[in-house]
Amino acid sequence: MMSEPADRASEQLPERVRTLSGDAVYPNETRWSFRSEGATFSFNFDLAPIAAGPIVISWKRTLIWYLQNKSAHHAKAAFERVLHLMRFLSEAGRGVFLEITPADILNYRGSLPPKRQWYLTSLSGFLCRWSDLGYPGVSAQTARLLRSLRLRGNEKGEAVRTFDPFEGPLTDIEFTGFMAALNDRLASKELADEDFLVVWLTACLGLRPSQISQLKTTDIVSPEAADGRRWILNVPRLKQPGLAPRTLFRARPLTAEIGARLRRQAAEVEQRFDGSLMGPPMFPASKEASWLAGYEWHRTANSIRIAVKAVADGLGVHSVRTGGSLTITPRRLRRSFGTRAASEGLGEYEVADLLDHSDTQNAQVYVEATSEIIERLDKALALRLAPLAQAFTGHFASREELRTAPGGVVRGGVQAPPLGACGQHAFCGFAAPIACYTCRQFRAWRDGPHEAVLEKLILDRDRLQATTDARIAAINDRTILAVAEVVRRCAEADGNG
């Protein structure tokens, strides 16, 4: 295309601008790189089939408006959609163009497959804003066409609605297995408190990695400073148009144990920086990175995302549905949080509030989703599913080991024969023998009456299914699978499997 000289083009752009978050961007550079809202952003204009000219200047000016009035995430999404359009126009033979015309829009729309129609929906708002700002490149006619088109939105919630086994929410059995493994690693001191808290906040509060990356030590509020009854975590709200990060917060109540752990984490960080930072990060980076003033030492959202996945992969939790290790990402844990909230009876407004959504558009899918609960779990099914679930994490012991176990013998009743023994030196406070089968300290005895325990649990489940609802009936499903695994292994050892 015809273009102006590079030096003349540069005169039409300011040397430096500040985003809504206060980050510096240098518009004349062909690559904008900056860190904002807990993430690193890169706008590489060298990837475009055109490198200079009025249309690129207008594109940059409109992106600047987005950075100053919306957010870096909105601007990045708009950049990628325009880049995709420009590549299409270039490949279609529009080698010289100074304007995106109505014909270009119609041709682009026709090139998009059904599942990509939302590309134009996302692009439309940006191009209309471009035209409204009066910058050359998008005519009023093009803007009118875009506003008149019936555009399809992105297909939202398919993974949630279908309970996709790799990207959708975790089932109750998968989630309880994941949390049990996480708590077990913490108890055995194989997991640092900081890593545990990052994963816990993701799984149990549904926080985005960018929210965790923005947390500061001052965001944890003790019961004495709050309402005198509970710990509070002030969570920064995201995606609030026209507002800088950490302008709005949502108060999220915490259990006493998690609140105390977060406060200890905050105290250790504050001691580490010893007053050198105003409001240190709750989860600091391993080394200082240059960022906006007030966000020194904060980790990026991607760093948090990688940490969550690393911890989850290390737990080695298995899925009954796939027979392999659970695929865990922060997004999947967040989807699980939303689905579990809806299954507890919360409506779309409450779910939207918990997920920090400004409207109910995306929350509705959680309310509509049906939790993956096994409606009928009998002994035969439990024995088939048990090897896949790997819910039994203990080991088998001899009579001699039962007598010498530090935690004592585990029985189903006072006069009942032993089921196994506890390998823990301290009192755990959980109800034996039900809690024992999913504990890795449990030492099962091969001659114990485990089959009787399994049958009783299934009878209790059937009774609850008939008198209450499926969720209450399924409360011990993971334990049932753990007991079934013990029964199956005992049968194999006896040559009857």
Task: List low-pLDDT spans.
Answer: 1-11
Q: What is the helix content?
A: 40-55%
CATH architecture of the largest domain: Orthogonal Bundle
Q: Return the structural class.
A: alpha+beta
- Output the CATH topology of the largest domain: hpI Integrase, Chain A
Number of helices: 20
Q: How many structurally independent domains?
A: 3
Mean pLDDT: 83
Describe the structure using short key phrases.
alpha+beta, three-stranded antiparallel β-sheet, four-stranded mixed β-sheet, 497 residues, disordered N terminus, 3 domains, hpI Integrase, Chain A, 46% helix
Task: Write a brief caption for the model.
This protein has 497 residues and is of the alpha+beta class. The protein has helices at residues 6-11, 54-69, 72-91, 102-111, 118-132, 140-148, 158-161, 172-187, 193-205, 209-214, 256-273, 301-315, 330-343, 348-354, 364-368, 379-389, 399-404, 450-467, 470-473, 477-493, and strands at 17-18, 24-25, 31-36, 39-44, 220-221, 231-236, 249-254, 395-397, 409-411, 418-422, 442-445. Residues 1-11 have low confidence and may be disordered.
Report on this model:
The chain is α+β, with helices and mostly antiparallel strands and 497 residues long. The chain has helices at 6-11, 54-69, 72-91, 102-111, 118-132, 140-148, 158-161, 172-187, 193-205, 209-214, 256-273, 301-315, 330-343, 348-354, 364-368, 379-389, 399-404, 450-467, 470-473, 477-493; strands spanning 17-18, 24-25, 31-36, 39-44, 220-221, 231-236, 249-254, 395-397, 409-411, 418-422, 442-445. It has a four-stranded mixed β-sheet. A hairpin with a 6-residue loop joins strand 9 (409-411) and strand 10 (418-422). 37% of the residues are buried.
